[in-house]
Amino acid sequence: MSIACGVPILECVYCLGCARWVWLKCLYTAGYESENWGLATAEEFEPIPRLCRLILAVYEDDLRNPLWAPPGGYGIDPDFVILRKNYEETQGQVPPYMVYLDHENADIVLAIRGLNLAKESDYAVLLDNKLGQTKFDGGYVHNGLLKAAVRVFDEEWEGLRELAEIHPTYTLTLTGHSLGAGVVALLTIVALQNLEKLGTIVRKRIRCYAIAPARCMSLNLAVRYADVINSVVLQDDFLPRTTTALEDVFRSLFCLPCLLCLMCLKDTCTLEKKRLKDPRRLYAPGRLYHIVERKPFRMGRFPPVVRTAVPVDGRFEHLVLSCNATTDHAIIWIERESQRALDLMLEEYRTMEIPEKQRMERQEFLVREHSEEYKAALQRAVALDIPHAISSSPYGTFHENEEGENSSRSAGEMSMLSFNKLRASWDGFIERLFDVDESGHIAFKRDHPVNSH
């Protein structure tokens, strides 16, 4: 009898718990994830709309007679398209891609298109990812995307090297959308590990912009390469937040809302500490740019705001129950909203009328700020005891250590060096101000009077 009386109480507790979860999820919006991030500047965000248009150009069969050009066109010269490969030429192992020589922006661009829902080969690449199957560069990565990245590098490194030698001051930009974004993110790591094949190209001349990427690398890699790889996410986009097997997602396209609800419930019930300790859990790569244009309980779209950070914990961990979760993934919408955001930034720039010298100083400050944020993220990963995390980058992208110190030293060694330097400077200060007599007493030197204040 006593057990039977307790059943209604358990049912009430269960219903209250479910109601609380539904309430939190209905109130949870993508803006909460980045509300404490810093605002992106026009200088750092400028390439993104342009690169979105380059990705869209890969979809065209004839760039001289485009069929789906956005307002204003793609902004490219077909004469400087160095290479184009379709599904037949890639044998379905990589989505179609293009190499474009952008003289106006002094840039060599390799752009890869996104998932083609009508191509079985694209699904084969995206779904080739058994849990823990591929360990790479001290972390875990998506197996199918890594194989596609290696294939692109093996086929194109000679051509990229030749272009870099002809144009030694140009940067190398790797960009892609959705499936292509995951490929270029891992392609960037492959390229950085094989810089000797790229000739004069060094790490600071390589950039990656992954537009709406799939989660493709473990957290330690996502943070370690945040100085080179940038991910762009529009509001509620589901793919950078999808932690479950993508195979299950595409099997459930006809009941995707049900699957998203189950995934939300699972993520809500999983402790954050447990998620961070899982070395095989994959994440969106690099520095994150989050375009926010909608607010809870308000209708329509607002002027987009772009926030950026290198987060460690809270890196797009929760799916957003939104009717825009799939439409926000479309490259057309991302290009449109990113251009709107950039136009607003530039309008503010023109209103402020910043002198050229101050703009250069602002750009230098931005580089230093990104460097400090990047190093802080590496230290945060170590503090959270992320598997295989390191406290400092071994590549020295932003600034070299003083006096030729090895940047791969441990945090303990660096702190000991700092302590020794501080002690030496203090001892020198004491010797300059004080004398020690024969009896061991300390007295001020006569040639260093003490000023009274």
Automatic annotation (TrEMBL):
Domain Mono-/di-acylglycerol lipase N-terminal, first and last residues per copy: 10-75
Biological processes annotated in GO: lipid catabolic process
Domain Fungal lipase-type: 109-244
CDD domains: Lipase_3
InterPro entries referenced in this protein's UniProt entry, alphabetically: AB_hydrolase_fold (IPR029058), Fungal_lipase-type (IPR002921), Mono/diacylglycerol_lipase_N (IPR005592)
Gene3D superfamilies: alpha/beta hydrolase
GO molecular function: hydrolase activity
Pfam family, one: Lipase_3
UniProt keyword annotations, A-Z: Hydrolase
Domain of life of the native organism: Eukaryota
PANTHER family: ALPHA/BETA-HYDROLASES SUPERFAMILY PROTEIN, ALPHA_BETA-HYDROLASES SUPERFAMILY PROTEIN
Protein known as: Calmodulin-binding heat-shock protein
